[in-house]
Design goal:
By secondary structure, the chain is mainly α. It has one domain. It has 5 helices and no strands. The longest helix is centred in the N-terminal third of the chain and has 42 residues.
Length: 130
Amino acid sequence: MGIKIISTALCLFFSTIITAQTESVILKKYALHNCLSNNYKNTDPSFISHDYSVSYMFQIKNADYNKLNLLDKYIEKTTSDYYKMGITENLEDSKANYIFWYCMDFYESNELDSYIKKLVGVTSKKKTKK
C-alpha cells in the first residue's frame, strides 16, 4: 500500500515537471516565431507569412492564451526594433539585415528563459554561499 502511494506521488511530481518543461519549450518556440514574423513584417509591410506554427500551438498543444498575451508584450518590448539594427559590413544589398541572428540570440537568452520560467511558474534553485 505504501509503495502505491509513493509511486503515485512520484508520478504526479514528475508529470508536473515534464508538463512545465513542455510548456516552456512551446513558449520559447512561440517567442522565436513572433520575433521573426514581427520584424519581417516591420521590414516589409507587404510581407505575408504562410507559416501556421502558431495555430498548431493553439490547437494541438493547447497553449494558454493568457500566457501568450503576456509573452507577446514581452517580445514586443524586447525585440521590436531588431529590423532597424544596422549592418556593420558594407554589403551590396542595402536591405540586408540580421533579423534571424538577433531573434536567435533572443531565443537562446537567459532573459527569455527566466521570463518563461516565471510565466510557467517554475522556480529555479538559488545558489547559496557557504
